[in-house]
Amino acid sequence: MMIKKKNYKNKIVYNNYQFYENAALAGFIEKQTTEGYSLCGAMGKFLNILKFCYAKTEVPKSYAIFRKHLDEEIDEEIEKIKTGNGKMIYQNNIYIIFENASSEVGERKSEMIEKKQNILLGVPIKKSIAFVFMLFVISVISLVLKILLIEDGNLYFNLLSLGLYLALIITFLFYFIGDLHDIIAGKGISIDGKMYFSRRTKFKDILFRIGDILKFGILLGSICISVALLLNIKDGVIAINVFRMWLIYCIIGYTSRLRFQRSYISLLVIEVFLITLSF
């Protein structure tokens, strides 16, 4: 009886780790090595796509992900590691990934810098809670007012807008609940009033994947419905309203991405601006 060998192939992974999950992302990359996959490339400003190449060995490896231009000491340490015994795996204008040095001194330096980096990238707990609570309250109140005023203006456009607002809030909640779950599960670590995540649970990973699918579905579905609305209802006022809605969506989406980096908080920011500026 012949036993067929499993044909391993390189794999491409979409990276939805947030900017404050550097340690968790490093842990994910390390986990891949136990399955025989080594990081061999990446794409995107925030490592949006990770490429893993299959290797015959399944020896666990340790990785250090450093954020450039975050702190002068960190930048200096990055240069030292590059000229020392650190093996660079990948770098772009923002991130650089090393396979941790084998020497004890190199490992201690990396751990020290990683700790400082995690604190700098950590989410201020009190400020973040206050900010998210404020945005969420504004969005819910505005949404209720919009529902009460739905008869004013074109019904189809109002339904499109309400559907978009509600979808953004629901998608945000998937991500937010995932983070809350991991904080309760002990994966979120608080240091000097800031929170960062060392690992990610399977439950959070599932919620984040659902959030990614919903985010793509919102964009694609809203565009299709907007085009259909413009084709079926040839009205200049409707066309202006649809154009204004997408202009706000794109501008706020882009600026909030710059401000909040790779963070799902941009969904709530987009929703709040869309709904408040539409009154």
Describe this entry's structure for a reader.
- With 279 residues, this protein is α+β, with helices and mostly antiparallel strands.
- The chain has two domains: 11-121, no CATH class; 123-277, no CATH class.
- The chain is 59% helix and 15% strand.
- It contains eight helices and nine strands.
- It has helices at 22-34, 72-83, 104-121, 125-148, 155-184, 202-232, 236-260, 265-277; strands spanning 11-14, 37-43, 49-54, 63-67, 87-91, 95-99, 123-124, 188-191, 194-197.
- Strands 1-3-2 form a three-stranded antiparallel beta sheet, covered by helices on one side.
- β2 and β3 form a beta hairpin.
- α5 (155-184) runs antiparallel to α8 (265-277).
- The longest helix is centred in the last third of the chain and has 31 residues, at 202-232.
- The mean pLDDT is 83.
- Keywords: Membrane, Transmembrane, Transmembrane helix.
- The chain crosses the membrane at residues 129-149, 155-177, 206-231, 237-255.
